[in-house]
């Protein structure tokens, strides 16, 4: 799957990342984490055959988990779906050491049903799955962001902003990518867009304050900070806001003059 998305990697390099000797196999969490290390998003598909076929039509292979055993004696097996023959109603897989395994759609679905209908596709930064869900994509994007370069993260959330402009989390993600890229003006605009959609999002407002500080706008930053209610925040976020407050006050003490015009424009 990684090779199909342009990653040069070998099974030998991947084995220590996904194989658990104690389990004599791999769990889904490892299978989802490995692509992120190679700059790819791991996106879990909806549990229906149409979602798999849609990705195949987009030239993306799909990882599935099968169970060839019984409920009381499961035999778990990962395979990669690479094709579907509508005339013969059969599914083509790369399965273990078998380069081309052909199963009837009925047998494929039986094994996939027994495996919980789990399926995964890998996406390049900026790509969207064919049958995309905003919540699933943004969750996958957030996991990817933790290990991704800022440039790749921006591509991922840029795609989300274009597809789902009503999703505050998409704007926050792109804003954070801009901030990490050293672009506080663009970050401030993205955080402001997120706050228009979700004014109560204290994390986004705190991030906006930090971007305004980087732009040399401490007065505007304090105006934003004063809109955050500390008593309603969980401890980690509350601590972050208190730290930001100290930075704002320190900045105002050094430069008490009014902000320039860029400060108002950057938060529009």
Structural class by secondary-structure content? alpha+beta
Q: CATH topology of the largest domain, anyone?
A: Cathepsin B, Chain A
Major beta sheet, specifics?
6 strands, antiparallel
Describe the global form. Answer: elongated
Count of the separate structural domains: 2
Mean pLDDT over the full residue set: 92
Walk me through the structure:
The chain is α+β, with helices and mostly antiparallel strands and 268 residues long. It has two domains: 3-123, Alpha-Beta Complex (Cathepsin B, Chain A); 150-266, Serine Threonine Protein Phosphatase 5, Tetratricopeptide repeat (Alpha Horseshoe), CATH 1.25.40.10. The protein contains twelve helices and six strands. It has a six-stranded antiparallel sheet with strand order 1-6-2-3-4-5, sandwiched between helices. Strand 3 (76-85) and strand 4 form a beta hairpin. Helix 7 runs antiparallel to helix 8, helix 8 packs antiparallel against helix 9 (202-214) and helix 10 (218-225) packs antiparallel against helix 11. It is elongated and about 75 Å long. The relative contact order is 0.09. The model has no long low-confidence stretch (mean pLDDT 92).
């Amino acid at each position: 799957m990684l090779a199909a998305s342009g990653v040069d990697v070998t099974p030998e390099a991947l084995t220590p990342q996904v194989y658990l000797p104690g389990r004599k196999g791999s769990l889904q969490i490892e299978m989802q984490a490995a692509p992120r290390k190679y700059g790819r998003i791991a996106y879990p598909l909806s549990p229906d055959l149409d979602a798999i076929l849609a990705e195949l039509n987009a030239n993306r292979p799909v990882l599935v988990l099968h169970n060839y055993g019984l409920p009381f004696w499961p035999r778990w097996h990962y395979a990669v779906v690479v094709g579907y023959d509508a005339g013969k109603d059969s599914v083509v897989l790369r399965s273990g050491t078998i380069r081309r395994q052909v199963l009837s759609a009925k047998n494929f679905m039986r094994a996939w049903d027994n495996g919980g209908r789990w399926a995964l596709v890998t996406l390049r930064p900026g790509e969207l799955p064919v049958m995309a869900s905003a919540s699933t994509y943004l969750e996958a994007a957030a996991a990817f962001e933790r290990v991704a370069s800022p440039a790749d993260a921006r591509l991922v959330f840029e795609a989300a902003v274009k597809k789902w402009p009503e999703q505050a989390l998409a704007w926050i993600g792109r804003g954070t990518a801009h901030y990490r890229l050293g672009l506080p003006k663009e970050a401030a605009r993205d955080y402001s867009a997120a706050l228009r959609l979700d004014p109560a999002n204290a994390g986004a407002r705190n991030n906006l304050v930090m971007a305004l500080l980087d732009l040399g706008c401490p007065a505007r930053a304090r105006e934003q900070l004063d809109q955050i209610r500390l008593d309603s925040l969980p401890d980690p976020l509350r601590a972050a806001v208190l730290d930001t407050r100290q930075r704002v006050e320190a900045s105002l003490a050094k430069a008490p003059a009014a902000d320039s015009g860029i400060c108002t424009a950057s938060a529009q």
